[in-house]
Amino acid sequence: MRVLITGITGFAGSHLADFCLAKGGLDVHGIVRWRSRMENVEHLVGKVSLHECDLRDASSTRDVVEHIRPDYIFHLAAQSFVPTSWKAPAESLTTNVIGQLNIFEAVRKIGLECRIQLACSSEEYGMVYENEVPIKETNPLRPLSPYGVSKVGQDLLGYQYFMSYKMDIVRTRGFNHEGPRRAPVFVMSDFAKQIVDIERGVKPPVLRVGNLEAKRDFTDVRDMVRAYWLSLEKGKPGEVYNICQEKCWSIRDMLDQLLAMTTAKIKIETDKDRLRPSDVMLLLGDCSKFRADTGWKPTIPFEQTLRDTLDYWRGR
Ligand code: GDD
Fold it and tell me: Which residue, judged by its Cα, is nearest atom 12 of ligand 1?
């Protein structure tokens, strides 16, 4: 069985490749751009096949899909950092929506029969009121950033291609996922790296933060990629599934737990550049639909994810 992972050089993509290799019996392929950072996949060289392609280029995408002819496509490649989507909204929309469109058109025009998973996002729910949690797949989509809008675009394009062409597409709305290899712009990894830099004395003992009142439903990335796999192994064509822990923590709680794992004395300072024009304040999901269809449940406790993220930075 051939598997194609777009975004293999990224955080979730590299963990999904690890999962596929550990499973065994899979021919794993990934797409890289000429300027992709390769540090997350250095350990995969020789074990997976990497193909140079830019998903924003339709002919490049079609060539690579035709060459690999995958049975499963996991579409993880995206501009995934919310603040960048305000600084470069057109680029975020193009990469995320048009990149995906090019995959769909390649599969359709080649006439390839494959299952496609789309890494959609809980950011699509955006403005969630206190009386609307836990969030089900039927909750309204009220995105609060260009990134959120791009994910709604990907999600609905998936629905439309399923309805129009009966393409075998499964949409997963992943809530926040964290763990080792996470880029240090995302909140848990950012705070963990700052703590380690302070422990090493390479940074003054001041940890810079943004909005600590937001709440997120965190899942370990290794549980998340197992869910991605199950979405294609057991998920129903055309369906959309929330994937989450069904618990939420404020960013302040998360920070306090990280601080309890260091002996360094650290001062907290708000950095106004880290505040967003509109932040998603509350994400707490319900993934009963996904659990019922696939049997998935998360296995790695939040404390373990925090510790592994800190240890990842301590080891570098
Ligand atoms: N990045 C960051 N840095 N976020 C901070 C900081 C900080 O210093 N301080 C507070 N926060 C708050 C943000 O305002 C936000 O409310 C929350 O921490 C999480 O921020 P991120 O880790 O940047 O993630 P996100 O929730 O915006 O988006 C992530 O999760 C989505 C799924 O819900 C990304 O992984 C997206 O790609 C993903 O779709």
Answer: 211
Q: Which atom of ligand 1 is nearest to the CA of 119?
A: 39
**Could you tell me if the CB of 279 is within 6 A of ligand 1?**
yes
Residue 145 Cα: closest atom of ligand 1? 27
Question: Taking the CB of residue 156, how many other CB atoms lie within 10 A of it?
Answer: 16
pLDDT tens, residue by residue, 191-211: 999 999 999 999 999 999 999
Q: What is the mean pLDDT of residues 82-96?
A: 98
According to CATH, the topology of domain 187-214+248-281+304-314 is: UDP-galactose 4-epimerase; domain 1 (3.90.25)
- Annotated domain spans of the chain: 2-178+218-246+284-300, 187-214+248-281+304-314
- Domain 2-178+218-246+284-300, CATH class in plain words: alpha beta
Any atom of ligand 1 within 6 Å of the Cβ of 80? yes
Residues 6+ apart with CB under 8 A from 206: 266, 267, 268, 269
Cβ(217) – ligand 1 distance below 6 Å? no
pTM of the model as a whole: 0.98
Spacing, Cα 135 to ligand 1 middle (Å) = 18
Q: How far is the CA of 186 from the centre of ligand 1 (A)?
A: 6
Which own/partner contact pairs does 42-48 have at CB distance under 8 Å and 24+ positions apart? 44/8, 44/14, 44/17, 44/18, 47/21, 48/8, 48/17, 48/21
Q: What pLDDT shows up at residue 34?
A: 85
Q: What is the reported pLDDT for 35?
A: 83
